[in-house]
Amino acid sequence: MDEIKNPYRPGAGTPPVSLAGRDDQIKKATTLLKIVQAGGSDRSLMLYGLRGVGKTVLLNHAEEIAASLHFHVQHLELSEKDDFRREIAKTVRKALLAISLVDNLKEKAKRALGILKAFTLAIPDGPEFKLDIDAVLGTGDSGDLNSDIVDLLTALGDAAKEAGRPVCLFIDEVQYLEEAAFAGLLASVHRINQKQFPVVFICAGLPQIAALSADAKSYAERLFEFLPIGRLIDTEAETALLGPAKTQGVNFTDEAKDFLLAETEGYPYFIQEFGKHTWNAAKASPISLEDATNARDAAIVSLDDSFFKSRIDRSTDAEKEFMKAMAQIGTGPYKMGDVAKQKGVLVNSLGPVRATLIGKGFVYAPSHGLIEFTVPQFDKFIRRHFKI
Ligand SMILES: Nc1ncnc2c1ncn2[C@@H]1O[C@H](COP(=O)(O)OP(=O)(O)OP(=O)(O)O)[C@@H](O)[C@H]1O
Ligand SMILES: [Mg+2]
C-alpha cells in the first residue's frame, strides 16, 4: 500500500499515531502537574523500562501537557559522556532567563543567576555564560557535586516561586547520572518539596535506576514515584498495531494480527517496525497473514540496522564476548554463574565487564545474582549477528 501514507513510526521518541496502554501514567503526570500548579507538592515521577518501550514518547507527551498548563518546561537528555554539571547549568540558565523578565530581574532570580555563575565557575572549562551579574560565591561552588546541585536547583525553585511560574524539568536517560549527581537530584527534590517551590521533575531511564540498595531506595521512593513502563499487553498491543491502520480505513485479518502480536511480543518499537513493513508489503485491506510473513524479514533487517546494531557497536570486544555467552544460554534473565560456566571462567572474574555493561546500559540486574539485557529480544539479535 501507499508508503507515503504509512502510519507506522519506528524511531527514537517518535510519537505513535496510537499511543496505547499508557493512560495510567499520563493521568499520574497530569495530576502531579495540576497539584503543583495549584501551589501544592507531590512526589516527582521516575519512569523506567527497557529500550524501545516508549519512555521518551511519554516524557514528550507529558511535556506538552505541562506546557499547556503554563509550566515552563526544560528537556534534558543525558548520554554516557555528558558532564551533568554542564548540562544542568545550561538548563537552569535557560529556565531562569525564561521565567524572569531580564530587564527587570527580581531579587530571587538575580540571586539564582549569581549562584549559577558561581556554579559554572567551579566547573573546569565550564560553559562561558555572558551573565552580567556577580557570582554569589560560597553557594553552589563547593566542588561537591551533590550539594552544589541542591544549591542551584533550590535557587531555581525560589526564583520560580517569586515569578509565580511553575517549572517542570524532564530528564531522559537518567541511568547515565553519576552517583553524586543522582544523590544531588534526590536531595534537591527533597529541599524543593520542603520549601513548597513550584518545581517538579519527570525523569525516565533504564531499569537499573530502580535497582538501588534498600536504604537508597526507600529515600528515593519518598521523593519520586517509580512507574514501570512495560511492554503492551492484550488489547493495548492490539490498539497499537491496529489503530494506526484504522485511521486510514485499513484492517488486518485475525491471523495477520495474531502473527504480528506474537512476533513483536507487545514491544512498541517492534510493533511500529513490523507494522510499517507489513503495510508496505500489503496490496489491499484487509492485511493478510501472507503480507505479514512476507514483511517479516524486511522488518528484522530494519530492526537490526536501526535498533540493535547501533547499540552493539558501542561495546568493547570483552563486552561482546560476555553478551555472546548470555545469548548462547538462550533467553534471560541469566544467572551470573551460568554465564561464567558458558565462558569457562570464574564468576568473580566477570565483575568488571558486568559493571561496564551495566554502566553503558546494555544489561541490568533484575535481582541479586541475575543479569538481563535492557534491549528486548537482544539475545535473538546476538545469535543472528554472530551466527551462533
Ligand atoms: N504506547 C505506545 N503505543 C504505540 N507505540 C508506541 C508507544 N510508545 C512508544 N511507541 C513507539 O515505540 C518506539 C520507541 O519509543 P521511545 O523512543 O519513546 O522508547 P524509549 O523507551 O524511550 O526507548 P529507548 O530506551 O531506546 O530510548 C517509537 O517508534 C514510538 O512511536
Ligand atoms: Mg528514549
Automatic annotation (TrEMBL):
InterPro entries: AAA_16 (IPR041664), P-loop_NTPase (IPR027417). Residues 19-202 form the Orc1-like AAA ATPase domain. Pfam families: AAA_16. Residues 1-21 are annotated as: Disordered. This is ATPase.
